[in-house]
Amino acid sequence: MTHIDPTAAANLRTPEWYKSATRWTQLTLVENDPVKFDPDFWIDVFKRTRSNAACLSAGGYIGFYPSKVPLHYVSKYLGDTDPFGRLVDGARSLGMHVMARVDPHAIHQNAADAHPEWIAVDKNGKPRRHWAFPDVWVTCAYGDYNNVFMPEIVREITRDYDIDAIFANRWQGHGVCYCESCKTRFRDATGFDLPMTNDVDDPAWRAWSGWRRDVLTRMVIAWDKDVKAIRPHASFIPNMGGESLMEFDIGLIEKHCPFLVVDHQGRRGLEPVWFAGRNAKRMRATFHERPVVLITSIGPEEEHRWKDSVTTGAEIESWIANGVTHGMLPWVTKFNGVVPDERWVEPVAVGFEHHVKLQAMLAETSPTAEIAIIDPTTTLKNWSRDTRRQAEGDDLGFYHALIEAKLPFEFLSDEAMTAESLARYRLVILANATNLSDAQCALLQGYAARGGSLIAAHETAMRDEGGNAREAFALGSLFGVRRTALSRGPVKNTYIALSGEHPVSAGYEGAARIIGGTKLAEVETLAGTETPFISIPDFPDLPMEEVYPREEPRGAAVITRETEAGGRTVYIPWNIGGIFWEVLAADHQRLIENAVRWALGARPRVSVSGHSVLDIAARQSADTFAVLLFNLTNPMMLKGPTREFFPVGAHSVSIVMPEGRSVADVRLLISGQTANYRIADGKVEVDVPAIALMEAVEVHWSWASRKRHFGR
Where along the sequence do coiled-coil regions lie (predicted)? Predict the structure, then answer.
């Protein structure tokens, strides 16, 4: 039977087509596919996975259709075939949406001979051969190749094929290009010579980062206009990632990109499974309502790049499902149309089926949380792409600590902060937002003045938006401290001592001190604060006979304050997030969790009990509240690939009921069961018998009286 998605089919070729493009299959063809692959196999994959959208290789580096654009290299195996057109027709016959993939990052020798100015140049003045395939050349992303030649290909594909969008991969360039065009245009625009390093303190590098952002943003706009001039309903969709939000003018991207595609295809090295869903929070942090798609590769994503391979089915399912847990639309990508190993197809179908079961609820509801971690976009813009992960360590530490605490939370970009967006949260966390403008600091101060609670750590607000060091802690009065010395370190063998009884220092029975950080700032406390922990001055870690403290504890290590507006603040003047992410010390997780629960001030709206590690998301509408539970309890939680799932037993999900509402129905969407529940103390408590990979609790509210106190 032909598979046609009625929702997708209803939106075919309309400006809102993307709203029903909710499950994607991507096929990236290789040069000999025209004579090797079986298009019918792929049409069947579309059906088996219930995909309603496809992304298909069209052109750029290699054309997989009979292109007439001069110098557009077409597969030497093409003959009189049109594999791209065949796949487009097959997808459309199933009522699917179609996006054409182009890749402009390299060119063949004929194009290089005709236009040497299209080639990227390294800092030594040498044209760049491709790092993985030296027979071809790396292109300059900022000049005529992307701005003159590639638009011809974009227009040809859009004109000749029944598509909804052009999707570009590897279109942003590969670092600084030192070609004559870039040298001249950069100097004319900024007055600087191109930077020779990616040092965040180099004004030329910061100027180049801004110049590149402007050039690429203008390119997105130009390609989008080219597409719309031919097919008004269609769009240009650039392949993005969370870091891409640091690289473009956000307002223009919001206008021209109806949905966002995150190219984080799987885990590499030591990465937890929750990195998948983190992408959703990061994109929502800037674009609150924009649909976000997560690309999943069927193979391992390690540095060694086995792209034409298959990882475990459990890993594929996990990556897809964690993205879905946080509202991302699933997309699977396969390189090479020939399929010698079909073990990936069923896990993709199962992963997509999870989305099918949740799709109605996801469409009806929006993410909600009481806690937000500030995504420090202003800070990260001052770091290069290669070093940005280092700057994110503090945020990753807080992220993992909140997961261990079973507390749902969201991100909020400091560039998207407004009084209204801050007001969505009871607690805002600045794990290490080093760079903040005066206006951003004023927004946070206003939030606290209206009763909001805040936690900040390490070097938050130490620099302005341009990276310049401030003389004083810009948020000092808010947290009740005065900074007396800038951060120093890394240092070793540091400790903090418990000081009196306080909820933030609870749970350390038997300990007088715990380990401290490796990067330390010094502060003085102001009136109206408490110090649950104080610093022990660091002392030698060798020789072993010298390992003892020389001084009594002095100096605040954790400062708490209750504000006149009814909120609470916590300031930790050391790198607790970063060192927890590096060391995973249980005492630091407890300290972060204690600080968060104390700063919230009241019981959380969502509580989950049970023996497990869960990544939790909450969603709501006027009549529905949903809690999604992703099971991280696995020996491969921090390093893939996952071999198998380790189901966890019974859990209880407690949700504070809205005033004037009663429970109409409670369901477990993945298992398909009607849930047992109880109502007590203004909460509905739902039993979840077991969780294999994921479960979703959906509560429907009604305005009926609350006389019934026990569910089925």
Answer: none
Q: Which CATH class is domain 6-258?
A: alpha beta
Same fold, 6-258 and 371-600: no
Range list of β-strands (E), 537-613: 556-562, 568-572, 606-609
- Chain segment 399-421, per-residue pLDDT in tens: 999 999 999 999 999 999 999 99
Mark residue 601 as left, alpha or beta (left: phi above 0; alpha: psi -120 to 50; beta: remaining).
left
pLDDT in tens, 524-547: 999 999 999 999 999 999 999 999
Backbone phi, psi, residue 571, to 5°? -125, 130
Give CA–CA dist 416/285, Å, rounded: 7
Q: Where are the domains of the chain?
A: 6-258, 371-600, 606-702
- How many percent of the chain have pLDDT more than 70? 97
End-to-end CA distance of the chain: 39
Amino acid occupying residue 66: P
Q: How far is CA 672 from the centre of its chain?
A: 29
The structure tokens listed for 497 are 């001592």
Q: Whole-angstrom Cα distance, residue 80 to residue 87? A: 15
Q: Does domain 606-702 correspond to CATH entry 2.60.40.1180?
A: yes
- Which alpha helices (DSSP H) does 64-202 contain, by range? 83-93, 109-114, 144, 150-160, 180-190
**Topology of the domain comprising 371-600:** Rossmann fold (3.40.50)
- Round to whole Å and give the CA distance between 180 and 198: 20
